[in-house]
Write a structure and sequence with these properties.
Layout lengths: L12 E2 L8 E5 L3 E5 L2 E6 L2 E5 L6 E5 L8 E10 L3 E10 L2 E9 L13 E4 L6 E4 L2 E2 L1 E2 L8 E2 L3 E2 L12
Parallel strand pairs: 1-15
Antiparallel strand pairs: 2-5, 3-4, 3-11, 5-6, 6-10, 7-8, 8-9, 9-10, 11-12, 13-14
Length: 164
């Protein structure tokens, strides 16, 4: 008797098949984020952004983030596709992850659906799960993609990939 994984498995996805400009799509799976031993996000209303060479970034409704966890800071950056981003420190008790989340107050029209959503760096959290699967953070410290078992790379972000 052989063991099988329960339920259907997601089809493999190559990040090199993702488009440029990036595509925005709804995520049907449950997403959970744990920081400092506390579940700070539990949602089934997320979006993901798919961009060539990057694992997806997941945008989670701020309404589904535990109250008081996000503290907006002065950091900002600009995305050629989505516009001006602002950053948040993530705080639970005396645990702090500086600039571990970001969002867009007024994203460009193609990404208007992610207004009021926040993305988190998986590597700065205890654990991020999509449909129960624990994700791996995108290599490097700049991009915030989440890597799942069905993704194939190579992924932008590791040393030497800045020029891709």
């Amino acid at each position: 008797m052989s063991e099988r994984e329960p339920g259907p498995q997601p089809a493999p996805e190559s990040v090199w098949d993702y488009p440029r400009p990036p595509r925005l799509e709804r995520v049907p799976q449950r997403i959970e984020v744990v920081f400092a031993g506390v579940t700070i996000v539990d949602t089934t209303a997320a979006y993901r952004v798919l961009e060539t060479s990057h694992p997806p970034n997941y945008y989670l409704p701020e309404a589904d983030v535990r109250p008081g966890v996000l503290r907006r800071n002065a950091q900002a950056s600009f995305c050629e596709w989505k516009g001006l981003a602002h950053y948040y420190d993530v705080v639970v008790g005396d645990h702090l992850a500086p600039s571990a989340a970001w969002g867009y107050d007024s994203p460009t029209p193609a990404y208007a659906a992610i207004a009021g959503h926040v993305a988190l760096y998986a590597g700065r959290m205890d654990e991020c799960r999509i449909g129960g699967e624990v994700v791996q953070p995108q290599p490097g410290g700049f991009y915030g993609g989440w890597i799942t078992a069905n993704l194939t790379g190579p992924f932008k972000g590791a040393p030497g990939t800045e020029g891709w």
